[in-house]
């Protein structure tokens, strides 16, 4: 009797929305002995690394780097510009705006939330209305997430800046680009963003552990007027260090820096606009497949309008527990790991097992996305999930159009 083969041997594929796939060039750059942190190669490479990091963000202004994850950058950004008792206005399109708002509350801010649901982007007109109502100027910052990783909603940050300006309000515009930086177009200076936070483990293709806070000169003036910023969170010495250790308020994340250098080289060698175009085309392939499968009635894209979807992540739903069954099947049978749902239902609710996400960010190409799509289609076939059977063909047609 012939045993069924296990097709999961070989290199696994982590198709979750972060940590993303790490390029071999990044891994090779990090595979080295500990460097000298006082002189030589590592300190010498920092000015160019900072410059190239700013280029990805579309800013000529300031960047502070932290050893930490995205949550650390939330706190770092707020600690520099928000005083206990200040009010912030938070636009929510999913779980991560709530996470940033929770950090603001923990730091003593008064939080005003505007909910825009789980399927569509924020509405700048509602933000403008809220700011016009703030006649006393109590709102110190408007906080928004460019791409919410839980819902895959992408909001229009340029229009949000326009709403703030139309209201004639002095609030800072603070944006979470943790999921979008290096994937979806983002132009910090052109769009008038005052503070932007990002992290290393998604579009920047580096292991988790580094966070970045980019800030305008206007935000720097807010920091200068503040007292009581802790030495660790203070972005001023990190953005303009007199000595190498001040980038980090202590020992640097040495090997992450080598990995980041390699990742930035890859991004700029390809060209940032080409990186965005690649992500956009691969996302279109994912959407074409999902829209085909959706015709079978068992699967739904979380964001109906393509214009409101991120090129980095796609959130999907199925009747529970089918999403969990599909994730388990692709991981066990194919070595393909799909992302869990986040923020769509409590983890102890059976509905939680009806959500999953696809990460298509960073170091991905056409054959990887076709493998992802083909693996999902195989899983739905094996599990007898009703679906339009032409998802892989639809994705291939998009990719063939290059």
Quick structural gist:
40% of the residues lie in helices and 16% in strands.
Strand order of the largest sheet: 2-8-7-6-5-3-4
The amount of beta strand, in percent, is 15-25%
Ends: how far apart? 46 Å
CATH superfamily of the largest domain: Type I PLP-dependent aspartate aminotransferase-like (Major domain)
Number of strands: 12
- How many distinct domains? 2
Q: What is the general shape?
A: globular
Helix content: 40-55%
Main pleated-sheet profile: 7 strands, mixed
Q: Please report the number of helical segments.
A: 13
Protein structure class: alpha/beta
CATH C-level class of the largest domain: Alpha Beta
List unreliable stretches of 5+ residues. Answer: none
Query: Secondary-structure element sequence?
Result: EHHEHEHEHEHEEEHHHHEEHEEHH
CATH topology of the largest domain, anyone?
Answer: Aspartate Aminotransferase, domain 2
- Second rung of CATH, namely the architecture of the largest domain: 3-Layer(aba) Sandwich
């Amino acid at each position: 009797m012939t045993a069924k083969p296990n097709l999961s041997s070989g290199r696994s594929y982590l198709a979750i929305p972060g940590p993303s796939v790490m390029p071999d060039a990044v891994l090779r750059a990090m595979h080295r002995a500990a460097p000298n942190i006082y002189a030589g190669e590592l300190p010498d490479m920092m000015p160019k690394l900072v410059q190239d990091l700013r280029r990805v963000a579309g800013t000529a202004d300031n960047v502070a780097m932290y050893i930490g994850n995205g949550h650390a950058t939330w706190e770092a950004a707020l600690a520099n510009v928000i005083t206990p008792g200040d009010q912030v206005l938070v636009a929510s399109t999913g779980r991560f705006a709530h996470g940033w708002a929770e950090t603001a509350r923990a730091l003593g801010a008064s939080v005003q939330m505007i909910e825009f649901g789980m399927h569509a982007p924020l509405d700048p007109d509602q933000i403008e209305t809220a700011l016009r109502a703030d006649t006393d100027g109590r709102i110190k910052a408007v906080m928004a997430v460019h791409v919410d990783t839980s819902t895959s909603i992408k909001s229009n940050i340029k229009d949000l800046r326009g709403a703030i300006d139309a209201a004639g309000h002095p609030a800072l515009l603070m944006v979470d680009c943790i999921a979008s930086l290096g994937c979806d177009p983002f132009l910090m200076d052109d769009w008038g963003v005052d503070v932007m936070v990002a992290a290393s483990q998604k579009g920047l293709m580096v292991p988790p552990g580094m966070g970045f806070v980019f800030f305008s000169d206007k935000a720097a003036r807010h920091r200068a007027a503040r007292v009581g910023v802790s030495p660790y969170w203070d972005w001023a010495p990190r953005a303009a260090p007199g000595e190498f250790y001040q980038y980090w308020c202590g020992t640097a994340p040495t090997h992450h820096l080598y990995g980041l250098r390699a990742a930035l080289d890859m991004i700029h060698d390809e060209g940032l606009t080409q990186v965005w175009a690649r992500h956009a085309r691969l996302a279109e392939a994912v959407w074409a497949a999902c829209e085909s499968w959706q015709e079978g009635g068992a699967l739904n894209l979380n964001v109906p309008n393509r214009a409101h979807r991120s090129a980095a992540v796609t959130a999907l739903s199925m009747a529970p527990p089918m999403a969990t069954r599909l994730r388990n099947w692709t991981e066990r049978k194919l070595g393909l790991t799909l992302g869990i749902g986040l923020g769509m239902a409590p983890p102890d609710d059976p509905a939680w097992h009806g959500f999953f996400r696809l990460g298509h960010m960073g170091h991905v190409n056409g054959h990887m996305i076709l493998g992802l799509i083909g693996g999902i289609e195989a899983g739905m076939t094996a599990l007898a999930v009703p679906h339009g059977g032409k998802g892989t063909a639809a994705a291939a047609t998009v990719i063939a159009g290059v």
